[in-house]
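User: Could you check the structure of this?
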Amino acid sequence: MTAPGTPEAPSLRQAAERVLLGNWTGHSTVPSHSLYPHQWSWDSAFIAIGLRHLSPRRAQVELESLFGSQWPDGRIPHISFSPAVARDAYFPGPDFWQAKTHGSVETSGIVQPPVHALAVWLTHQADARESARRGFLARCYPKLVAWHRYLRTCRDLGGRGLVAIVHPWESGMDNSPAWDDALARITPAPLDSFTRRDTDHASTDDRPTDLDYGRYVQLAATYRDHGYDDARTPFGFALEDPCFNALLIASEHALAAIAQALGLDPDRHLVAAEQLTSALATLFTEGLFHARDLRLPPPQAGEVAATSAGLVPAGSVAGLVPLLVPGLLQAGELLETAAGPRFRLGGVRMVPSYDLTGPAFEAGRYWRGPSWFNTAWLIHRGLREHGRTAEADALRNDLLALAAGTDFAEYVDPYTGEPRGARTFSWTAALALDLLSGS
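Assistant: Sure, the predicted structure tokens are below.
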């Protein structure tokens, strides 16, 4: 039965399928033909989760296409560039990154959150027989193991067992206020040294400022100029992000399930998930998980505990995503924070990307307040994980109503539901399709 205020399922399903078919390139799905005309890493994972209901085979191909851009060190780059798209259609493009895999696929040099093993496992479950026939799990498993190994070895920059991001883009939540203080220490690249393309397709009021973009460019250029070597690069920006690490935990649990399905020992992945979960607890304070800034100057005597631990004061939706983690000890406090004045779960549209009471809140600007469909999907999954069925159902209905009413917008104003960013956005359509299918 369709809940009051939600769209009729058949028509929404057909509309979501049209978006995914329209954004399909023959081997992968672009997030948006205008704003994001290549293949993005965590986008493809979310897209596959929805595509599995339309075509499990196509969902498998989506992920296999992404893994085709994997580097020898195991990293999965955040962009795999399409040779069919003009080289200057997106900035930074392949000429900026100067990165190429052994298979001559041009890519970026940074990464995005590791939701891939979860996507592989869910895709397999959609049609286990077809997956087995194609050897899907057997081919993906070693690639996922290499990906996680890269993150847990090369990116444990704090020595606590947590993965660090070295660029705001690696968080997937590019423009979050959680990165403001760390970015302020970065000297931006000169504005006349690059030409933005994102503002050709979206309002400047919705996008990061030129100053922030200059800092993004400088961070990427420094990493590039050091050969994307994590040991040699003098990272000016390095933070342990709760969302990134929570998704790695969820994916380690998925890897355990994949290993068991292949007749392999799942224990290594369960141990890794347990270790990461224990380390993640060090990011929890005052009812929310916070990022830790690894490049803060040493604390002075008498500073508060959160500051001395390097935790960033800004509260973002990234701090709620650990609800995904099975058996999370902090789940009760986290649920209280989600329902409280900072995020008002059930009182605003979906889940705002930044603390509604925070000083940097902007309802319409990229990751500084708007509600996003992928984080709502993750929190819906977390609510179900912890038995909060009523809240999960309400969030599901809100997500579906907004997807239908905004032509599958990239994100929305949390107070009004007004669409922002791109329309016919692929992960919005994919995750709506997933929820419509009872997931």
